[in-house]
Amino acid sequence: MSDSNRNRRARTSHHQGLDTPLASKPKWYQRYQPNPESFGVMTESFARWMGTPQFLLWMTVFVSIWLLWNTLMPEELQFDPRSLNFTLLTLMLSLQASYAAPLLLLAQNRQDDRDRVVAEEDRQRAQQNLADTEYLTREIAALRIALREVATRDFVRSEIRDLIEEVVRTDAESDDVDDSSESTKRRKKDSSKLTGEPEPKTSILDLEEAQTQNSPKNSSKSGSRAARNPDE
Q1: C-alpha–C-alpha distance, residues 131 and 147, integer Å
Q2: Which one of 51, 70, 76, 169 is least enclosed by Cβ atoms within 10 Å?
Q3: Distance between CA atoms of 66 and 182, rounded to whole angstroms?
């Protein structure tokens, strides 16, 4: 095994060259490091359990039994006598406190890291929301500027209303003109009847009626002239 390792190292050193530094080997204490994630989860669970009422209750029960046993029981059965001021119990509580403080600090550091990550994500989300809001504001402003030259519903309604009013006004004026013309015609008819003069025929219909009345007379005159010519 040693010869094969030596040959492998020789081949790697030959390929790497003398100018390539070798990678440093991990120390023995670096090889046996615990997993930070799993150890952090364990410490957080322990810290959470230490902050519960159950831990305080069971700790109180344990210390009470310890004190009663080493106080009321015979000296032969006492393992931490009162005469020594409960040295073993004091040592245990001190050891527990010395281990609990770093565990609580480790759990607090992990919580601080999580809070920092959450705060960073909140900041990025707030920046993204701000950018989206600014973009929407610019788009709305551009739409407002573009819609200034577009006919809105109220503008179209007002224009249609004005047109309708103008049409109604022109119709009323035309009706007034017709009424005035009819009144003038009636006055002329009345005046002609009173004076005995024939009614002047100025309209197109009157002229057509006059032409149709004159056409039979002209045809009869032409027939009588044609009858006289053979006799002559």
Answers
A1: 24
A2: 76
A3: 130
What the block records as the tokens of 6 is 């030596």
Q: What is the pLDDT along the chain (232 residues), one digit of tens a residue?
A: 455 555 555 555 545 556 676 677 767 666 667 777 888 888 888 888 888 889 889 999 999 999 999 888 888 888 888 888 888 999 998 998 888 888 888 888 888 988 999 999 999 999 999 999 999 999 998 888 877 766 677 777 888 888 888 888 888 777 766 666 666 666 666 665 556 555 555 545 555 666 666 565 455 545 455 444 444 4
Residue partners of 159: CB distance under 8 A and separation at least 6: 151
CA distances to 161, 163, 164, 167 from 157, rounded to whole Å, are 6, 10, 10, 15
Tell me the helix, strand and coil percentages in the chain, rounded to 5. 80, 0, 20
